[in-house]
Amino acid sequence: MTDAQMYARLLASDESYNGRFFTGVLTTGIYCLPSCKARKPKAENVRFFPTCEAAREAGLRACRKCHPDDFARGADPVLEAVETVVAEVRAKPEAFPDVRALVRRSGFGSTRVFELLRQHYHLTPADLLLRSRIEAVKQRLLEAQQPLVDSALAVGFESVSVFHEHFRRLNGLTPAAYRQLAKGGSFELTLPEGYPLAYLRRALSRDPQSVTERLDAEVYQTAIRLAHEPALLTLRFLGSRVAVEISNGSSLEAHRIVVALLGLEQNAASFSRLAKKLGLARLVAGRPELRVSQTPSLYDGLLWSIIGQQINFPFACILKRRLIERAGQRLPGTDFYLLPEPKDVAALNPADLLPLQFSRQKADYVVTISRRIAEGKLNLEALRGLSATRVERTLLAERGLGPWSVNYLMMRSLGLADCVPLGDTGVTSGLQALLKLEERPDIDATRRLMSVFSPYRSLATTHLWQFNQPAP
Question: How do the domains of the chain map onto residue ranges?
């Protein structure tokens, strides 16, 4: 990279270049990460270094704001402190009666705690407490047969009515109905008021030639694995209700997948209020309750994030279908295919995908990352419990995954709330139309323009994808 290119990344505070070079400011005698939020120096006062050691040899000292030495050795004391507090809240939410208790335990100021949780977990402190209590009470409902009220109070809920309201909103059913899922069988979920079902139907039917899923009128079916058991998942859309049936496997696992597919845990109402406050009510007009529909599995999202790079949507669908037919298997008794498992794709050679019209590079990426998963070098399921920052760093270290792929996967498969797939044409064309720009914004401009939607940039992204489309 030239000095001009590195200086441009410095001005953009581009986190993806952290570690690729370090910036030294001669007038202050300090060296930093490219993403440092300190005041930007003039170009003539900046030198660039390949390592922290090189910067120190030039007589510079480490910045106390961005801690470049910690980053270089893989340490991040502030992130580690936040992760410790979040782990404590998740393990014992009843020990934190309110946000003030969380702030006190963190050792940071209130504003800083809000900033750090939004940055690293895409959550507000109140959201963290609520979600931790809900997860804790779900475990109690399944493990202990104590009264529902006792379970709610034990994890820190002060009001039974508030507990029921939040539980139903985030899970689509009552606590008593959730407890019944352990017995298996079908179940029914209630959609939020104003849920834009027509947009979900469009998302579920965007690939009419798919061999893994199909939408027929008001019935959606897909072949999936439930706790490693092949199963046919059937959703029947009944107005404000969704009836769920499974041919095999765990109803609890099916519930988790369907809640993610419907996006029930996402805070659509808060994003709509934010858009209106920004004077951008037209972004959410006609669909204020729109959600990000998540993929049934992380591997599904990972494959798409690689296959879908830099090619048009119809051709990406063709490539994915060919891969599934090549490495997957039919669900017995149906004409559906199961998505291949990582070990199935890992058994292929990249050359096996060339006759399917995969490029050499795309074939190499798909097979190589599948092998890493099959060999245990990349644990996809372990990503679910990590901070968004750790997830992003882990995935960016993998060959074939860039900022677009990683943010797409974080948003579509992990349900993280504050992601932007930078470089996405749907996002840039949506921003151009929404803000009436003369031309589509580049990556740096996209990052700046999307910052106003934080911590709901994933929802902003899905609204922008729909902005130039006719209503379904």
Answer: 3-72, 76-183, 184-265, 298-467
